[in-house]
Design brief:
protease; alpha/beta; 17% strand; 610 residues; globular; 2-enoyl-CoA Hydratase, Chain A, domain 1; transmembrane; Pept_S49_pIV; 2 domains; 8-stranded mixed beta sheet
Amino acid sequence: MKTFFASLLGTVTGLILFVIGGTLMMFIGLMVISKLGEPPKPQVEKGAYLVFDLSSNISDAPQEIDNNAIIAAFSGQDLPSQLQTRLVTRALRAAAKDDRIEGVLLKGSFAPAGYGTSFATLQEVRRALETFKEEGKPVQAFLQYPDTRDFYVASLADDIALDPQGMVLIPGLASQPTFYAGAFEKYGIGVQITRVGKYKSAVEPYTRGDFSPENREQLTSLLNSLWGELRDTVAEARDIKPADLQALIDAGEAFVPADALKAGLIDRLAYTDEILSELKEKTDVDDPKKPFKQVSLGEYIAQMGKVRAAPEEQPKDDGDEDGRVAVIYAEGAIVDGQGTPTDVGGAKFAREIRRLRQDPKVKAIVLRVNSPGGSAAASEHIQRELRLAAEKMPVVVSMGGYAASGGYWISAYGDRIFAEPTTITGSIGVFGMILNIEELGNSFGFTWDTVKTGEFADALSIARPKTDEEMALAQRVTDSIYADFIQKVAEGRDLDPDHVREIAQGRVWTGEQAIEIGLVDELGGLADAIAFAAKEADLESDFMVTEFPRPKELAEVIAEAMQRLSPTSVEAPSILEEAAQRLEADLGQLRQFNDPRGVYARLPVELIIQ
């Protein structure tokens, strides 16, 4: 027995040392990878081309950690990079004035993820490329399978070359959510809802098998507005009438390379080696073993300061004092509590806004919103702190891809609201969703019984459906929050409450439509919002910009990476894998329904625009 315990102790000790050693090696490995992964600061040769590889996801918020970079370092395979909107646009505008940069090469295809690479983001990127062209520098595009996002950006290029074996994939926009009502019914999951607003259809995937007429109406209007903006911009850039472009697309004559060339969508067909040879000639490289003079966008960004205000962000009239403009990125679903790195945690963001409004160095706040909304309680906590901040300094809102429902709730009191024409906003409405598993549990032999001291003592139970009285109470709560939402929008936007009720009803609008109905003040991007905030705060042109959430320190990155990284295939997902990932993402939204009152101000449908 003594030998047994000695052996057991030795085995346990060995396991502990193995785990500790493995953990330490992981830490050391991640530290080395992190250091190796830091972009170098190359010497940019005069006459070089800035290479903008579109194979990336462009998010508004700074990247706290780039999981893809770490996975790529382990696997040796390239994965889509993570870029930040503000740094991309700053780099392109800086390159326009940089005597070393001869031109820009666009290649690859965007890899949207989460709320990144929205059409609103791409409008900002496209404007920065237009600034580059205005300096008389060429923009060249080499594409293989450009989709709507890729072609929207690349359409302004002076020369668009398409791989002869490629394809132009710009069929238009579509939204095709998954509906779960049938599955819930089949497996015995009950759903009861409360809502206000005939267009507030966020619960439809869990209660219906298709779009309601009202939801179909609003989505048709929204997609037509978005597509009109994208189509008309591309048509103008390619010197084609919008109606003619639409006819080409609907007839299927814009997809095949030869047809796209004939229609004028592209300028020529070319292979990779031909493009590389041309670029070597343009950059005066004679050595056949050397590449053309180039610097990647990521490398170029690495040379730039990340806190000084860029020229396009500076006010036109200098003020009297120096200070800081704080940019807060509300990107992701709004949830109660701290949230995850991809959520907008109500408690976390409220605490940060409180810290900023109490910081004497902060003279203005810009709220950058890229959110479909979520928890009504969390939205109110964030809005409350922004209203308190507005008593001391300018608070300006910049809307990205989404600023809907709770995303509009936190925006309503901004001194000025900027949006892109393709921003999805509005959705002023609320809903509640209550699940129960009585039938599911019964099918496995589970039952419940109750002893209680009051009529509503077990009202929060998921073991049974809610009674009529409980649902009436839940609807009263929903009605009350909706009335509060209407009042806040009317007060924040200085609009008549009757007008707000008319344009509310949970309906979504594009930024272009929102200007007409008073929900947005001005079309423009983040740089415009920063410049406006700085001018309102009487800041001089050489002011600082601070950002939240901030990039993490190395120790924080490593600690969080060990928790968040999971074995992930770096191979391109198959059709079945993509479907499984989509299903997982859709069902994962249920985690975000964590409002203490069970009431939500969220986009009426999870818009996946294809």
